[in-house]
Amino acid sequence: MKKKKWTMFDIVLTIFMIFVLVVTLYPFLNIMAISLNNAIDTARGGIHIWPREFTFANYQEIFGSNDRLLQAFMMSILRTVVGTITGIIASTMLAYTLSRRDFVFNRLVGFMLVITMFIGGGLIPEYMLIRNLGLINEFAVYILPMLISAFNVIIIRSFMDNLPIALEESAKIDGANDFTIFWRIIIPLCMPVIATIALFLAVGQWNSWFDTYLYARGNEALTTLQYELMKILDNTNISGGDITSQNAEVIAGQTNPQSIKMAITIIATIPIIMVYPFLQKYFVTGLTLGAVKS
Asked: What stretches pass through the bilayer (predicted)?
């Protein structure tokens, strides 16, 4: 086999991609290094991508200071799983209906969906609606408001519009009804875009804390990880100032606000990062296949 000769373009491109890789990974590695470093030593500064004095004290302080953190973690997982599954089912069913050429109100419903992307009712009307529906301090408040997203429906519908119409016609000739066509033909073919939407929904559900603050803080059983971590951050009173000037702020638990902040960032980020590799191969495909009509 002949060795490939490196051109000047290859060298420049390689150097550029290495630079992009370093720029992308450095902030995350820096945050992880600070979260795993001794808090008093961190106050001196100079931590880059590797901790000087390795310790789990920052994480022990977080989990030790809040006995509801494990319960909140499980609730975040539950709402993410349930919210993602129900969101996918509702969005794909609506998208399939809108993709049907014989649906009379196709344009009207599509127009109403698009309008919601530009015009919102506001926080107060939304809160009054949630309250009148009896969803305050109920688990359903995590699911129903995020059940349908116009953006997700439009992406799925665009994907379905590019599927060969002959597949549906042949299935109808064989006696299949609409539900059979949807579940056995359309859904398997739409797995790339479904995986993409699943990632959007999962990230949105996992990172959400404001709905817990507004609608579910009266029920301790519904507290979520992001909401509990937000309260810990609020209690540490992080000023965002120069870390080298916070030596006097190092608290008794051998940690400081900066270390707590970095550890919380890692706790909130790692679970969703672990999900992404399983969906990555579908991500680009799901967004591009429905983007161009042939």
From this structure: 7-29, 73-96, 108-127, 139-160, 181-203, 260-279
DSSP 192-225: HHHHHHHHHHHHHHHH--HHIIIIITT-GGG--H
With a CB cutoff of 8 Å and minimum separation 6, the contacts of 163 are 186, 189, 190
Q: Tell me the CATH number for domain 67-236.
A: 1.10.3720.10
Whether the pLDDT of residue 112 is over 70: the answer is yes
Q: Of 4-8, 219-223, 244-248, give the lowest mean pLDDT range.
A: 244-248
Quote the DSSP letter at residue 134: T
Confidence of residue 140 (pLDDT cuts 50, 70, 90): very high
State both tokens at 102: 């014989």
Q: What is the pLDDT of residues 235-286, one digit of tens each?
A: 665 444 443 334 334 444 456 777 888 888 888 888 878 877 776 666 655 5
Q: What's the whole-model pTM score? A: 0.76
Instruction: Give domain limits for the chain.
Output: 67-236
Residue from 260, 234, 232 nearest 246 by CA: 260
Handedness of CA 63, 65, 70, 76 (dihedral sign): negative
With contact defined as beta carbons under 8 Å apart, do 37 and 255 qualify? no
Burial of 75 (0-12, 13-18, 19+ CB in 10 A): buried
Q: Which amino acid is at 268?
A: A
CA quadruple 79, 81, 85, 88: dihedral positive or negative?
positive
272/26 Cα distance (integer angstroms): 19
